[in-house]
Amino acid sequence: MKTLFSKRAFLFCLVAFFTVSVNAQFTETFESQTPFQNTFNSNGQAFSLTNAFTIYSSRSGFGYQHSNRFVDNSNLVATNQANSIKTTNATAFTVKDFWLYVSADGGNNPSADGSIIITGKLAGVTRFAITKTAGFGTSFVPDNGFSNIDLTTEGGVDNSNIPIDEIEFQLQGNFNYIGIDNFTWAPQLVLPISLISYSATLSATQQVVLNWQMANGNNTSQFIIKKSSDGRNFKEIGSVSAAGNNNAVASYNFIDASPFGSANYYLLAEVDKDGQVRQLGVKQIILYNRFSSASMYPNPVAGSSFTLHTSLSANTFNSYLITDISGRIVQKGDIIATRQKIDVPTLATGSYTIQLSDGEVIKWIRN
Predict the structure, then answer these.
(1) I need a labelling partner for 177 at 20 to 30 A (CA). Which of 55, 122, 265, 327 fits?
(2) pTM higher than the cut 0.70
């Protein structure tokens, strides 16, 4: 930074090139990086610096904890400027925290006279965006004008586990200078989402329960459930939010409280955070609704019709079959009401049965 050396007391300190944490994080201090370059290598991963960002190295002691090298835009100071740190081969990584120096006078003095938008991107798509308007360092004491940006808490949301391949810093207001030091990151392997299991079962209360397990669902936004009575024409009946930033196995369930009274097909689909939809599978349940009681009158039937009484739940589809004494089906139809007239004008005199779709049978006579 371009501050006078007298403003910053030189402090000797030992600074490691990077530090490995218990969860495979690395803190890049830039002390071993080549000055004035727009690329660097940290723990074997190549990064590039975009726009005005380069590795700064001039007078010693200007970095966080008076270190000698850091990333800044001192070769092209400007307001409303966007600079990024990104992997050169689009490899995903996560960012835990870093130390930030911002200034409105070209880096001479730290200030709070502006704001900054911190954006994480993956393949050009924004994964998170934080607008920081306060909490900037305004004094060289105690951290040489730097303030810590912890992505586990900054903005009230934990963004430290979101895979990105670029982190962008957009200066706003009067800010025209930015410095980044002690950049703590972790390599992140984005694994393909995997369906471990998917099942559909019928509960004792005649509800269909869908259960599924997923692995590597870090990029999943939600699951969509669609239903069909014929296995071809599906309609969405609900959705389930994904567990969040989770590469472990996660379990989900969905309950259909109003299944069809016959065949039910359930299509499960996954929606990723970029809006892409992928079908995961279809399960089938055959359901016969249970009538609490069923009756018909008159019986015997003297005319050309009779009335069937059932106890139907709403939004279900049920059917009936009429068979003669030999078991031959002579008529069939749908049950669409709890009290329904059934016409039988062509049936001859004799004994018949009417079988409901739950298996219940009523014997009757046509006079």
Answers:
(1) 122
(2) no
